[in-house]
Amino acid sequence: RDRMYKQYGLDPPLPVSTKLGQKRKAIFIENKRYPNTLLDQAMRAAKEDEDLANVMLERIAWSGSRFSQTGGDFYEQLKIVRDTDIHISGPGTGMMYQTF
Question: What is the C-alpha R_g of the chain?
């Protein structure tokens, strides 16, 4: 994992233990197998959950959507994954970044 980040000139992610007391980041990944209505419901439920008050929630798509932040650029995707603590996705290619 660290080798991939270094290959792209990025620092590897910090261990969670170094982030104590900081706000966590969770991303909901758009995926054709994860219907938008279900994704919307999950986002709303997470925002209303008091236990997640210290978690910054964000909806993204790797490409081809109004929620796309990367335009398919792998370098930008790596930066997002590096800075994310919780990755939420339906089954399929949207989960391919789980190894990072």
Answer: 14
Residue whose C-alpha is closest to residue 9's, from 67, 56, 78 = 78
Instruction: Give 56's strand partners.
Output: 25
Residues 80 and 27 sit within 8 Å (Cβ to Cβ): yes
How far apart are the C-alpha atoms of 36 and 60, rounded to whole Å? 12
Tell me which residue of 47, 22, 53, 80 sits closest to 71, measured CA to CA: 80
pTM over 0.90: no
Q: What b/e string do you get for 8-22 counting C-beta neighbours within 10 Å, with b at 16 or more? A: eeeeebeeeeeeeee
The tens digit of pLDDT for each residue in 10-59 reads: 998 887 777 777 888 998 888 777 777 888 888 889 889 988 888 898 88
- How deeply is 28 buried, as exposed, middle or buried, from its count of CB atoms within 10 A (0-12, 13-18, 19+)? buried
